[in-house]
Design brief:
This protein is mainly alpha-helical and about 300 residues long. The chain folds into two domains: about 160 residues, Growth Hormone, Chain: A (Up-down Bundle); about 60 residues, no CATH class. It is built from eleven helices and no strands. The C terminus is likely disordered.
């Protein structure tokens, strides 16, 4: 944050020379809105891939290959709409296409965490992932055309660079926020589930069982299943019970944490859809990305016509 602030202060003093970041770009409504929408889309993509991948492998026990196959409808949906969305945005403008796309993206994300359970089948995710993909496909081409719609010719390079940089920032920010929310919710969910499940254990083992989950929730990786480590002197029947309960606690705890975590990108998608209504609509100009067409030079009056008058 300090470095970004210092960079902006430096660029402020360079606006009359040749700034790396021309602030005048942000006076254009479409440019500013679409850059914010690009950050929102990063939240949507990370909001699906990060928690869903962990869920499919750690809770449902899918292999990496099967997890990838389950996510295929996301790519298929995007493939179906990406081309038509680009054509329609050129003809009618990207305002309502982006609004519809982000709305579908948000619906797909919401649908995912509504069907996610400890024993869900892979078929339950085909519909929501496909809908999310349809929405994502409606964002790529329209964002590219709308962000450059009114940019003057001499600022197209800077505008493209700013747009790409902000998308990268959005991806980093989305990963950090979603990861932090998931971990925070998982710590709370595992502690609650472990405290409830511990009632089925002998009194001497309850505290260690709960503390094992409280500590283990701080480090969650793809494919892991948290639980308490067992001392060597634990009776076999108690050890079996602990192992069984540990699996149930982690699975249910992760599902409980998944829902509020995915609510973050879902709400971000709906906010982005509402923000797109502020875009200036209409067909994309033929000179898109080059600002207003240059004025035509005035033709000198014909001497013969002047003499005739």
């Amino acid at each position: 944050a300090v470095l970004i602030g210092a960079f902006l202060m430096y660029e402020r003093g360079q606006q009359d020379n040749e700034p790396l970041l021309p602030f005048s770009l942000f006076k254009d409504r479409n440019f500013s809105v679409v850059n914010l929408v690009g950050i929102a889309v990063s939240f949507g993509v990370l909001g699906i891939l990060l928690p869903t991948t962990i869920y499919l492998q750690s809770v449902l026990g899918f292999s990496a290959i099967k997890t990838g196959l389950v996510l295929v409808p996301l790519a298929l949906g995007s493939m179906f709409t990406a081309g038509p969305a680009g054509i329609l945005s050129e003809k009618f403008g990207g305002k309502y296409i982006l609004t519809a796309g982000l709305s579908m993206f948000g619906i797909g994300i919401t649908w995912i965490f509504l069907v996610a359970d400890t024993n869900s089948s892979w078929t339950a995710f085909v519909g929501p992932l496909f809908v999310a993909g349809l929405g994502a496909g409606c964002t790529f081409a329209p964002m590219g055309s709308e962000v450059m719609r009114n940019v003057p010719p001499h600022l197209t390079g800077a505008a493209s660079g700013v747009n790409n940089a902000l998308r990268q920032v959005g991806s980093v920010l989305a990963g950090a926020v979603i990861g932090a929310v998931l971990q925070a919710k998982l710590v709370s969910a595992l502690r609650e589930e472990a405290a409830t499940a511990a009632q089925s254990l002998p009194q001497d083992y309850r505290a260690d069982f709960v503390s094992g989950f409280a500590d283990g929730a701080q480090q969650v990786e793809v494919g892991t299943q948290q639980g308490a480590s067992l001392p060597a002197d634990v009776p076999q029947d108690v050890a079996n019970t602990i192992q069984e309960l540990a699996g149930k606690v982690f699975h249910q705890g992760f599902v409980d944490a998944l829902q509020p975590t995915m609510l973050v990108p879902a709400l971000t998608m709906f906010a982005g859809a509402a923000l797109c209504l502020a875009l200036k609509g209409g067909p994309t100009p033929s000179g898109m990305g080059h600002g207003a067409p240059p004025a035509q030079p005035q033709t000198a009056p014909d001497k013969d016509a002047t003499a005739a008058h």
